[in-house]
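Dig into this one:

. . .
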Amino acid sequence: MNRRARTPIKQVLQADQTAELCVQGWVRSVRRGKEVSFIELNDGSCFASLQLVLSPELGNYSAASRVGTGACLSVSGDLVESPAAGQRWELQVKQVEILGVADDSYPLQKKRHSFEFLRSIAHLRPRSNSFGAVFRMRSALSFAVHQFFQERGFLYVQTPIITANDCEGAGEMFRVSTLDIENPPKNSGKIDWSQDFFGERTGLTVSGQLQGELFATAFSDIYTFGPTFRAENSNTSRHAAEFWMIEPEIAFADLADNCKLGEDFLRYLVSYALKNCQEDLQFFNQRIEKGLIDKLEALAGAEFKTISYSEAVERLQKCGQRFEFPVHWGSDLQSEHERYLTEQVFNGPLFVTDYPKEIKAFYMRMNDDDKTVAAMDLLVPRVGEIIGGSQREERLDVLQARMAECGVPAEHLDWYLDIRRWGSCPHAGFGLGFERLLMYLTGMENIRDVIPFPRTPGNARF
């Protein structure tokens, strides 16, 4: 069979007339009748499968009608209107080539499997209905991310995966080294990192923001979209050691501009999913999260409101609600606080701005009160924080003082300080975790189920 003659099943099911064609894919189920046999074939191009009708006149009918679930077939025949309910077309098969057999040990039989089980066979779970839908959504939304920024003239920047800088200052970096771990070179009793491959201590990046800022001072508006890594021993449904981040940086911008970009971006992605991923969204709406589509439609048309952190704390303290984590000024807002604000107080998306400087990173712009920084978090119902960002500190003296206050060695970030020395300008940006976004758009409750091969504490299989 010539692969170039293959018609994707998605295109077949959207056909407006009968035709002779070739399809290729994997068997989802087989039903053997007395006179004919039926095979459900799926090639991953869409959620639905195509029904193949095999008659005994077929040359290799005996072998073809006895293939197992998971087998790979190349099939040619006539596309005809189906008399069966629930489907418009079926393929009357003229020729079958069995490209790959699958015996009874194939683990994805026609029954519901738990997500925990499917994680244990991550190399096969893309063939399941749930994960086929998830990864089609992931692909579509990846394209939408680039489309949003490219339509607005942003430059796409590929920031380094290996870095000598800890952007967040939390020390949760995966170390990258070629030194002999059993006998590393030492100087005065400490590991001599100058003899390592890069001549200094390096790790996997936790963010491309700092490098992104450099490009924003040359190209005005840029974005990064790539993998980031955090050696955080958090074995929860919302944490992964490897995940993808979208981080735009905009020059000549303040916190209000940053919030507007975040609002436009999230609204665009939600609207894109509603318009272009309807079949998969219907599946998620029925099987994963009831009311998902209504939730997304409400967000796409919602008014995004804004309050300060101080006002948020005051409202939470006066609301009469008992929280697991008490609320006080200076503490970070927990998910329960964020959800209460978006679901009970404002009933929609909410920007919280101007956080205490003690709970935010060194690079955020100091406000005039010398107590808060120009930070923002975008909170949405049912999830809480989905975007976090800030206006960056563009004043050299203030940034240097803040770095000293936070214990960030200035000699490690001399290049970062240089853009404050030469041609500094107001600029701002934010980060959106792609997997967190996908969880929101699909209703999936575990981050391990929206990334192809999850990396979590104790697990790096496949």
Q: What stands out?
A: The longest strand covers residues 19-32. Residues 173 and 366 are 26 Å apart (CA to CA). DSSP finds 13 helices and 18 strands in the chain. The two ends are 31 Å apart (CA to CA).
